Amino acid sequence: MNPSLTLGLLLLPAVAMAEPLHLERELNDLRVDVEVSELETDTQPGIESGLVQVLITNHERFKVACQLHPGETEASPGLDSTPITIIAPEGRRALTMSGEYGDSTLNALLTCIRDE
């Protein structure tokens, strides 16, 4: 079998399972679970447009405040930081981010802090 074909077949599952969002996390030692899912995507040549959701579960005994910020490489003016979201103790909240980007993966930063 052709070596480049074999390599391509081995990489296929990794490409198919790529995350819709590359998420950096600044969780400040808080006990929170973070799940990322893709809600919808519209693909055009060179442009990826879609909506991703970050589901946060707070396992602390106090409220936490979380916010999504678009990555530095995201050049579209449609990508703005989400509003600060307060999550109650043992609560769950979803943050969403949408926009157009020239890569198949959206980059973002999730920050969470204790809410005083």
UniProtKB/TrEMBL annotation:
The keyword Signal applies. It comes from Stutzerimonas zhaodongensis. The lineage of its organism: Bacteria, Pseudomonadati, Pseudomonadota, Gammaproteobacteria, Pseudomonadales. Residues 1-18 form the signal peptide. Keywords: Signal. The keyword Signal applies. It comes from the Bacteria. This is 3-phosphoglycerate kinase.
